[in-house]
Specification:
Layout lengths: L27 H29 L7 H22 L1 H4 L3 H32 L4 H28 L3 E9 L10 E5 L10 H12 L5 E5 L7 H8 L11 E4 L2 H5 L2 H10 L3 E2 L3 E7 L2 E7 L16 H5 L8 E4 L6 H7 L3 E4 L23 E5 L2 E5 L17 E9 L2
Parallel strand pairs: 1-12, 2-3, 3-4, 4-5, 7-8, 8-9, 9-11
Antiparallel strand pairs: 2-12, 6-7, 10-11
Amino acid sequence: MPGFENHTPADIKEVEMEDGQTAQPMPPQKKAAYRRFALVVFMIFAPIQVYIGWRLIPDLPVNLVFKVFGAMVVAISTVLIPYGTLASVFVKSQAVADRLVWAGSLTLGWFSSLLIFTLIRDIALLFVDGRNWVAESAVLALALSVLVTLIGFLNARRIAKVVNVDIPLDNLPLALEGFTIAQITDIHVGPTIKGQYVQGVVNRVNALNPDIIAITGDVVDGRVDQLAKDTAPLGKLDARYGVYLVTGNHEYYSGAEEWIDEFRRIGLQVLMNEHEVIRHNNTDIIVAGVNDYSAGKVIPAHKSDPDAAISGSPSDPPKILLAHQPRSADAAAKAGFDLQLSGHTHGGQFWPWNHFVRLQQPFTAGLRRLGHLWVYTSRGTGYWGPPKRFGAPSEITLIKLSKAS
């Protein structure tokens, strides 16, 4: 479920490469950590699955054969959700692992909605004559969960649409009026998002002809040796003043230092607590970037530091910060930035989890203000976990700067 990715252990996997060679085996302690994590997930979801089966299956207006089949689906899903979504850890063949991840992720998305509609049904039955609505409400809960999952799947798998956002800055010089930034974030290239999807994003971004392109983290879910061919299209991104990238938390699950080298190899400019001064129409604008908010817990030298990112820059030009998580905003405001571009939240990805993001982040999606600092939080260009977006569509954001009136 959205937000659950913050608790995923480091994504170091043992895989069989396409040429038949096997990547470096996972250290035993890492494999043990993944097994413990999968067991925890199983223990969380097993009682949820039992509750869903107990409340719905007996009330469905079908014969015993179909009820037994339903019980089998619940039992299989109880195992498939934790061990399917983490199949890349336990299965050597990457092709087989990817298919299991697809199955586990789709199941997780479906049962997430089925749980919500089962709860709503149980609450509703407290206030109506249950004898008249038991069967009908069970069918309705099941049907709605399938419908939401199908719509969410179609929304997730399409290439993100462009969202146009005008942001007024108090100190924007006239020469920078109309300066454009194309932002993409949270693509999550991995078992279910591959190179063809990435190429579609690249084509749509390049068609915007932006002044700069900002990639605000969580590009990958997997190691360089697994995914380099799928992230390669990002090297074809083209903007007048360059393509800038900052790390997200998932880069630190996937080998951040190796990915930073790979991003630079394909031509992306990685900003690690540093900045660039861009000259546009003989006028300066500063683009800075910080490492992920939690990066220092994995690599102490990568601790996120907005003050360091802006250190030594000219004081007068407008200052834009690329920061994966919206909760970097307090430090960004204190450091003197005018605009922060973030992602991470996915806008909640699908209902009703969008209502819970605020428990962990100050902003869920869209344009907000914190003192003098504008913060734009993208809903993300891909998805994480379940291939499902409902009520929180993906986006490619085209930001246009303007002078505040």
